[in-house]
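Hey, quick one: can you model this chain's 3D structure?
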Amino acid sequence: DFVYNKHLDEAVISIDDENITLKDFSYYIYIVEKQINDMAIKYNPDDPNDFWNTHFKNSLDSVFTRDYAKQLANDYIMEKETAIHNIYVTESEKESIKADAKDTYDDFSQKAKDNTRLSEEDIYNILCRRKLVEKYAVRAAQQVKSDGFAGDSASLLDYDGEYYKEIIKSKYNVTENNKLLDKITMGRVTVN
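Sure thing. Here's the predicted structure for all 192 residues.
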């Protein structure tokens, strides 16, 4: 059996020489599991597993998990781009992010804390990265049009978007560890 927290130091994705570990990826898994579990509770408050088993079969796990890994890579690559373009998180944004990180950590079940080993500081760093990505996306959306790409900027900048793949991601060597990703079962990592 796959024991999630025994693999936290393994790379899920590598971008150039940087390894992004399963621990780093855990936040993304938490967000997905939380959203699905909230739906599951609305669907059947007495037995949320009913929703998980009906609407989220294990066969979808690897595709879903791989998509989120690509989103993770997108965030790290976009963060690298923010450094090139002098984009940073302001002090007031950091204060807000700090409060969000505390709320998120406080929301973690004991199972989530045990399996992910994410600290409040880890979550803070992830949320700072996501804020940088959000700010970079605003700048990049303007660039998309001037580079002659047509369509919705958000879609073009998403992990499977044409602009992202051709103009941004192509500058980096990205490797996914599908062997590890395929072992993750959604709904078993952070929710009880």
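One thing worth noting: The mean pLDDT is 89.
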